[in-house]
Amino acid sequence: MTTRTVGFDLDQTLVDSTERIVESFRSAFRAMRIPDVQAAAFTPWFGYPLEEILQRVAPGTDPAEFVPFYRRAYDEERPGEAGPMPGAREALEWLRDNAFRVVVVSAKHHPVVDVALVDAGLGDLVDAYYGDHFGEQKAIPLREEDAAFYVGDHVADMHAASLAGATGIAVVSGAHDTRALREAGAGAVIASLADLPTTIGRLLE
């Protein structure tokens, strides 16, 4: 396996999209005349497929009706901020400068991955991206890309890394703590992407 390809999850790993996701949900709910949902209700479900988040925060809502309103808000209106997570650009620049290839694998709808990366100012540092993959499905593009590492904030990201034969590097920037991420198979746990260069260097020794 090559050691020069590093995979990344998107939301809450590379991109802080919390505000944009929540505000896009709220925009869709207003269009559908659904009562507002507090932002805290979304926190445990970031990183899950859109339809699953919907059922968690507004059970019984018809996804077929909801998704077009959400897509219009997220893709066209772009409410709220969607910036880089702390240390994200510096980590990607370090990988590029050290001849690594960067691949993003996300549960987010494929065309929207590019929107999120561009808005966060990271698009120029990513070599390839894959959307519409959640949990163990992420192992498929990771294997195809021969990724040596997969960086994510979710326990499902660590499971996918293991299935792909990659080393999972967990960032405690999402809903899961260090213990849960290690129990899910993380080879390393870091506080932020600022620690990624040192961690990869150590794991390659």
Structure, explained:
The longest helix has 15 residues, at 18-32. The mean pLDDT is 93. It contains nine helices and eight strands. The chain has two domains: 5-16 and 82-204, Rossmann fold (3-Layer(aba) Sandwich), CATH 3.40.50.1000; 18-77, DNA polymerase, domain 1. It is an alpha/beta fold and 205 residues long. Helix 1 crosses helix 3 (63-77). It is globular. Pfam families: HAD_2. Keywords: Hydrolase. It comes from Arsenicicoccus cauae. This is HAD hydrolase-like protein.
Summarize the structure.
43% of the residues lie in helices and 14% in strands.
Average per-residue pLDDT, rounded, comes to 93
The assigned structural class equals alpha/beta
Shape: globular
CATH class of the largest domain: Alpha Beta
Strand order of the largest sheet: 5-4-1-6-7-8
Report the β-strand fraction as a percent range: 5-15%
Q: What name does the CATH topology of the largest domain carry?
A: Rossmann fold
**What percentage of residues falls in helices of 4 or more residues?**
40-55%
Largest sheet: 6 strands, parallel
| Measured distance between first and last alpha carbons | 15 Å
Taken in chain order, the helices and strands follow as EEHHHEHEHEHEHEHEH
Low-confidence residue ranges: none
Keywords: Hydrolase
GO molecular function: phosphoglycolate phosphatase activity
Pfam family, one: HAD_2
Protein name: HAD hydrolase-like protein
